[in-house]
């Protein structure tokens, strides 16, 4: 049988693209080299990290906040094995859900490494040997892997990446995290909440480079209160490990000063790189850029007609929802549609507490682009809902065009802002103004009122509760 589409890789890009193609009437196969579907996101990324973030937050609140709420506990103990088991159960259910969706949509699933023989023939090397399948079109959705330069001596035991960190079954006394980006701060929060002494070594002079500077500063204040320690403007120049510990050598940028930190673990979280190993791209002549990303045009087709690539393996934010939209775009393009993705409106979220979220342009970007803008801010400490839940850290910032009042960017740090950001995304999709945002009735008391107030502040300094 010849397939209409073969998808290589079953992460959120691949499996969602496969479902959409099947919905549109195509005969689809999906190939996954691991024994479970769902890719990085479901197996070792978004889902397990959020499961541990939730568990550790419950513990932290029980120890640090319950008493003030008038709740007395005799003792709250950490059972790390159970925490990891629950996380694994969540992952299991979620991956099985994808398997179910493949069946429901009549998508054939092949387990094994997919590689090109020709542009229309794909080999699958699995446990039962080699199979070959024929297809009209191919979608490459092979995702990414952590960057682990040799100087870190990544041994998967004491020098680890997020993949191993998600399975630590004993709370470590000390952890060094290289990289103050999303993974470093999310997993750093998990361990800091459980009582680990966490040092973050970040090359830049700020955490979360690329996001709003003020949000980064606010978050760093909160994470310091949690006990996390930051070496900004520092780099790791080497790591040595034994069976039970590691020693990390840290150097201040452009200075001779260096020092060592001994820790149970060194977590390397300095970014991820596109993964194309084993695909045999050269057999079909697919071009990649200098960062190893497969090159694609505006409808995500590679230089080889009929072969598409989506998600972490191509340019753009390495985010599950971006990969999903790209999977949908390719499927709809293949069935003759003219789909479009507004990359400016792909929201970004950091699941620390307080959470951080953003959509659109940052102030730095607006300055670089020479776009005149005005800004309105509202702090959560002035909000009744936030006081009720004792979550008063953070703020919402609305950036709007100085002349037209169109919302250009919204940046938040605070309680549940991972969810609150969707209001901004929806309004910006319809090119609303700050005035529009400020005139919408927001339910009281909710965290969303901070958005209304920040919009009021942006459209003429009219915040009501400040
Ligand atoms: P992937 O999910 O990486 O899937 C690629 C799949 O292809 C894998 O299953 C792989 O085994 C398979 N594969 C590779 N080569 C072959 C081959 N030759 N043959 C067959 N199969 C192959 N993003 C968010 O939006 N929100 C989050 O909260 C979030 N949290 C994260 C937390 C962590 C710890 C990490 C590491 C990442 C997180 N991400 C998050 C990022 C998110 O996981 C990725 O952006 C997303 O998974 C990319 O999807 P994808 O489909 O492109 O690739
Ligand atoms: P990142 O790009 O978010 O952060 C890496 C950080 O490491 C940066 O701050 C960078 O300046 C720093 N760095 C780089 N080299 C360094 C060095 N040698 N020494 C010290 N610091 C160094 O990357 P990440 O945290 O590894 O995450 C990888 C990807 O996974 C991200 O692109 C992100 O989009 C995705 N992810 C998303 C979520 C989410 O959406 N909540 C969660 C986790 C991961």
Structure description:
The protein is α/β, with parallel strands linked by helices. It contains 13 helices and 22 strands. Helix 3 packs parallel to helix 6. The structure holds flavin-adenine dinucleotide and nicotinamide-adenine-dinucleotide (NAD). Nicotinamide-adenine-dinucleotide binds at residues 178-184, 186, 201-204, 209, 235-236, 269-272, 317-319, 349-351.
> Mind telling me the CATH class of the largest domain?
Alpha Beta
The third-level CATH topology of the largest domain is FAD/NAD(P)-binding domain
CATH architecture of the largest domain: 3-Layer(bba) Sandwich
What's the average pLDDT?
97
> What's the shape?
globular
Helix/strand-derived category reads: alpha/beta
Secondary structure: helix percent: 25-40%
Number of helices: 13
Unreliable runs? none
Q: How many domains make up the 3D coordinates?
A: 3
* Alpha-carbon distance between the two ends: 67 Å
Q: What is the gyration radius calculated from CA atoms?
A: 23 Å
Summarize the biggest pleated sheet. 7 strands, mixed
Overall number of strands: 22
The set of bound ligands, ions and cofactors reads: flavin-adenine dinucleotide, nicotinamide-adenine-dinucleotide
Share in β-strands: 25-35%
Query: CATH superfamily of the largest domain, called what?
Result: FAD/NAD(P)-binding domain
